[in-house]
């Protein structure tokens, strides 16, 4: 009897000692509800595999911002003294304590993660839904995009162990939802338009009032047609959602609109995430063709790279933005300019993820890369037109460490394009370089749109170019497209040609543009004072003298910009 009781006591002790201690979990991120346009289908299958990523906390982010402004502000003694890749990595890489703490936790949970960023701040791994729910006190469920039927497995909140606080920045994809409106521009039926004379730009061809071609942009913005000469000067165009740049269409486009250069002029392909660039005529992408034709066709002689991002490890809520910035950051000599014609509503993303990506763009800026993003095509209603009661800012345009490009239309004078997304971020505050410009606009605006936007948010766009009736070739046919996705490649071409002149003069490329644009560069811009960007049942924001959240500071003039940079 005694022996039996002793064995029972020992068994109970062993049971108590063997029972896992209650975890100390802390809520890390959550969202109030399901984003507009999505519906809950039900719980995700427990055995379904999730591809998750962990972002470790980076060091010295305040110092990163200080250095970015220091090398990007014309009045600074360090203007143009960009940092090397190694210097940036040394500045922001996570502490060894953070690396060890997170890796210990992963090992304790039998997770094999791999590092997917040059700075070591991003890790990736795969686990079944049941384990993800347990690890993060989450409820991963299947959500359906009502319009397209696309599925997304997400959770509305998640927690992390208390010991990971201060070391683990975020888990993705969790509370960030896919972009339901990341659609390429609409290609309008074939049109009839004649190529304009490229040798005489004293006046703007009359046809530019209805159709935009490279010659129109050269005339409107005084863009030279002479070839760039510096081989180190590179321009990168990013491509997502299976948008492919067709070389035959580029040849057709150049043969019609750039008879002064070889129609065989092309681009260099770079791929990641299983990206490709098939050349079947039926695979030609409207967006990719637009972006490539108006960089190769306007940035004469500049080396253009098309970065085609596949879907092997894309995470739905980023459209490959994260992988692209990590890829470019890993280069010893990144492109001088990178233009992206994609974006999404800021509200679909978690603030932590938006901030993490924004800091990644700051890293590239310190290395001398000009990051350009189209502001979106929904006016004040977001990336694409939608119903709303308060204004919808877009991302990444709200990030203060890149240049957001809006759209104009018409010539002599230009006016704001009605679809040009603009407004004020709900995630990012007003940067110092913009404070005076934003303050002046809000004072002139008065009580208009009161309560519909964040009065303390970073304003966008920063600048604009033409964005209506761009003629392109797709699948052997000519047609037109509209959108800020016309505008960003146009500005990228202008900045690339400026960089060519700067490099030829022994100077650094422009890098992060905004401190220059909002100071000495503003005199080189054409102020746009008419038009607005309606949405959400309002007339949106009106364009006014000075900066406005429709066309930014205005549109560029190449000759004036040359003077502004001291050439």
From TrEMBL:
Pfam annotation, one family: Pro-kuma_activ
GO biological process, one term: proteolysis
Coiled coil: none
InterPro entries registered for this protein in UniProt: Peptidase_S8/S53_dom, Peptidase_S8/S53_dom_sf, S53_propep, Sedolisin_dom, Tripeptidyl-peptidase_I
Record text on cofactor binding: Binds 1 Ca(2+) ion per subunit.
Top-level EC class as recorded in UniProt: hydrolase
EC number: 3.4.14.10
Listed name of the protein: tripeptidyl-peptidase II
Organism this protein belongs to: Lentinus brumalis
Lineage, top ranks: Eukaryota, Fungi, Dikarya, Basidiomycota, Agaricomycotina
